[in-house]
Batch of 4 targets.
Target 1
Amino acid sequence: MRIGVVVNPIAGMGGRVGLKGTDGKVAEARDRGAERRAPDRAVAALSALYDRAPDTELLTYGGEMGAEEARAAGFDPEIVGEPGEEETSAADTREAVRRLVADGVDLVLFVGGDGTAVDVAETLAESGADVPMLGVPAGVKIYSSVFAVTPKAAGRVAASFDRTEEREVNDIDEEAYRAGEVRAELKAVASVPVAESLQSGKQLGGGTVESLATGVADDAKPGVTYVLGPGSTVGAIKSELGFDGSPLGVDVWRDGEVVARDANEEALLAALGDENVIVVSPIGGQGFVFGRGNHQISPAVIRRSDVEIVASKTKLDGIGVLRADTGDEGVDESLRGWWKVRVGRFERRMLKLS
């Protein structure tokens, strides 16, 4: 097996600092203190691949676009090219894919988000080569169904897949997303390894949640700080609490007052009190409660808080399992197990987070 690796080292930088994406926002993300997360996730994926298939022929681009991460995972990769500038770009990703295809790889394993997925898929289509692709999730928002559920799962799938299927590559308008509107667009259809540990495309709809929102508001306790995640379900809770929240951001509420609006990780940590509750809703079709679209709620925030998961019955029916991908294995492990998910004013349903 010859596997080509492409890492977008700046993917996901905007998440924890509240930018809801990194496209065109790298400098601002850095100004806010953002740190790179894609390289570590690439190492996790490649380490899992090395554990399963150490004899894999690995081809990659130079520097942080794959070579450094491959060596950290134990591989001695073949370098097919180098990025043109210190700050990598979509053009570097596309050129890397072209060179990997020219060198006859059997799979392109990429690390990034939806924007990177589009670059890879479109370049593969332009090449005319029948080469599948597989994503290691590292972006802020992931609406495509070409990603494994976690970096380690991506490595395991890459090591052992034996057939492929067609899956959708979607992307959204980040400026509209930052303004609270989701405009998803199908960009490509790509060949992807068949595996249970691939995530579904993100559903954009949801069921009625009025009674659920009333239940959360009724149970709100004096002195408790509530960290309210993004999305329409938690948005209904914000409305029930008496304020217009940021629809795709994270807000903090305590004792009838909005403590922080559209907060980044730093602001969330500053707003926490002695007793804190994070209220989040899983992504429809995928089941992620952390690690997709809410990176502001970081492991550091989670460690200081209790967690309440809420969802409409309709959404829960389409999930089957809950997931977390915070980037911290200890936190992810602490979240695993059975959860009582609130689905109504009083009703709860058991669902496992795995």
Target 2
Amino acid sequence: MSAVELAPHGAETDKPKAARGDIAWRWWLVAPALVVLLLAASGPLLIVLVYSFLEPGSFGGVVWNFSTEGWFQVFFTRDIFDETVAPATAHLDIFWRSIKLALYTTLITAILGFPTAWFIATRAPDVRPIWLFLVTIPFWTNLVIRTFAIQEVIRNEGLVNNVLRGLGIISAPIQMLFTDFAIMLGMAYVFLPLMVLPLYASMEKLDFKLLEAGYDLYATRLKVLWHIVLPLVKPGFIAGSILVFIPAIGAYVTPRILGGGRNLMLGNLIELQFGQGRNWPLGSALALTLLVIVVIALLFYIRSTAQPEGRRHG
């Protein structure tokens, strides 16, 4: 007789019941996380989406009348007589400044983060945690305090100008504060660890015997770096770039302090609409536009990391 015939008749019907009970138990376990995601993430996002299609109130808030004016004002503007339509150059300039500074910040952190991560990855295994600890120390300090520290360094009477004047290189202080350079410098300082850690994670797994093989084949250091090291640590570069670019493009504190309220970025523009501007639909539309830019960056990251897998299995 087969094992199925020897088994009790109720055993087969008990297995589906046990499987259903196990699935139900898993759903109960994950239910609190789903509720948090629904209320803390999806819920506010849905509110912002609804507000973007309403009319602004006279003193803030919204009027519950359907309107696409908020989305229109993201890219266009009208004159006081509502006759002439022109591109919203102020908004477009802020969009461009935000994307440009976020890209520059990503590039600077990549240039500085690569040698830093390489230095840590090539240390003795028992010393690496100490260096990683030193890299993560800035995260222990509040973002506002770190930004004010940069302000004290680059202001007209700050450390940099005082040293340059003391050496006789300059006679008058260089205006660095309240410029795009100040914002870029501050964001690079704040987000540098977010680039170093993914790069180190990739370099730690690097097989250094491949470098020795390249040298044995008479490759120069530059060729070994370009053809061996960079392709192998590419996932770390991509992950670090995403981790830096996304918070940089929506930064608020650093542009507010180092930009002096004149060099606005998207985060400052959105806050301005919900505050002094009292135009919540426009602020909601700008926030969703920023979300679209972030989603495009994430899709680029997914596509960049998926291509090697497809080629490997192709």
Target 3
Amino acid sequence: MTTQSIEASGKRKKLWLAALKPPMYSVAMMPILVGSLVAFAETQVLQVGIFLTFLASAILILAWENICNDVFDSETGIDVNKHHSLVNLTRNKRLVFAIGNGLLGLGIAGIIAIALRQQDPTVLGLILLSCLLGYAYQGPPLRLGYQGFGEILCFFAFGPLGVGAAYYSQTQSWSVGSQVVGVIIGITTSLVLFCSHFHQVEDDVAAGKRSPIVRLGTQRGAQLIPWLCGLVLVLILGAAIAGYLPRWSLLALLSGISAVRLSLQALTYHDQPVKIFNLKFYAIGFHFWSGVLLSLGLVLPSVL
């Protein structure tokens, strides 16, 4: 094998890794993890089988959404310069779409199994609504993400709906604490999507996509990020003080370190596409650490 072929093979592997987006799957896992652990903190019971089934289903459903977004974006031309698009890599849109829909079917089957076990369709209804919002984000004819509404859809799908469904799957009830956490996870998840727009403003404009960063401009968009991070930390603090979450949940305030890194990166390089390309990974870091530390805070009172 020649040096050039080795380099080409390595480059293609990197493109496939970027296309599969492994870090993004914390976005699918976190609502289920935190929502289930809020239920555990309140009831001291965790139905492990339901939790694991829900977790696997959430990963499969997010895989469907990511794959179908590549398919739908290929139809608008917005991904013409996106070399790690699955459609561009495979040059087989029909196959990619079929695989995505297959994953959706498997994910929904897991949720149906939970609903049948509990003889309660509520969780299934919440997840189907979340899937509908996910489709409306990029799918025709709505393509609401192109109108700048993607972050709102993301907030509800991964926040109050996703966390609420996970909590309900454990308790078949509702609580204020679970919905506060739903708002927190909704904001941090929407931040990931919000931060993914900074480096592709020109492509978005060319394709007619009015993302929040196209509408606001990169500077004002970057200035909004510290406020959103601060809101998350204030909600954690307020919920713990009010007793909706255990005091140990204040551990999640340590994720402020990730919030500062994210904010500085955005404010410093907001108008430099090459340097701001990885901003969404800073946002994933804040999403991950705030969720993990919050989860730890929910579990510690029961084990100490």
Target 4
Amino acid sequence: MVQALPASPTLAPVDGDDEWDGEQDPAVAADETVEVREALVDAGWHGQRLDRWMVDLAPEFSRNHLQSLIERGCVSINGQPAPSASRKLQAGQRVRVELQPTEESRAFRAEVLPLDIVYEDEHLLVLNKAAGMVVHPASGNWTGTVMNGLLAYHPAAASLPRAGIVHRLDKDTSGLMMVGKSREAVTALTRMIAAREVHREYVALAYGRVPEEMTVDAPLRRDLISRIKMAVLATGKPSRTDVYLLGMGEQGVRSISAVHCVLHSGRTHQIRVHLAYKGYPLVADALYGGVPALGLTRQALHAARLSFAHPVSGVALQFEAGLPADLAAAWEQLDLPPLSLPPIFD
């Protein structure tokens, strides 16, 4: 086992950070420092790879992260930058490692980002999310998310579960989302979603001639072959989507239907999977068989209406978001009538 030498008295400062350990709320960050560890290579490690030795020195970090520290110049051998992770060590060498935080640990930090706020009071915020923006930090998207933006816009969100986010939209789905700004509101909104008391309505463009009205009641779960997909499977969770035809146009030899979708459950990719299951994949939804068209490079899906009771006052609220520029242009190419959602709920 590698024995670290006494810690260096000089710690390199880095920016503050927000931490969130999954089960706990994001915490307001204190000043963070980079820990420096040094150790001498003993005879047992002579001829071994540098990255393997580092795993023994800092077992709380993954080997991939430690390799990235070598690439970033955070590791030195006898005062010289380590050339590679595969460098063979020699007994008696002094290795110094600056243990920079992982991308995951940096994820929950405030970032000033453009957020389209359509409603706000002391308990509640409703925003119109842009397509291409991820809601929660995750692998491949540790920055630039809705959560990062909320932590900058509303610093008190750091004390709330998931910064107040109570539901999400897919990265490439645009439209309305609600966010709690107080613990009371977050708790109430979460319960309302579970009780199906929040009404979420979407607009989409789908290939094919969709019927005037259609209900898709089909259970969904993670696809058994591709883990990035969802699928209709008997062992899935109950899922229902009501679909209403808004209009129809033609793109070459293919018909494209504009549809109004009403969720009665909120499963991952629900509308995308349900429509593809019925033979009507969304335009540009490559994951579920919809090829790009009409200038669209992301699935043609927009959260257009959100209806619910205010989580504290109980006042009925309803919000609508018009089509974003890319969907509006596609809508126009199909010569569809102006978007007007009919009332579905009293």
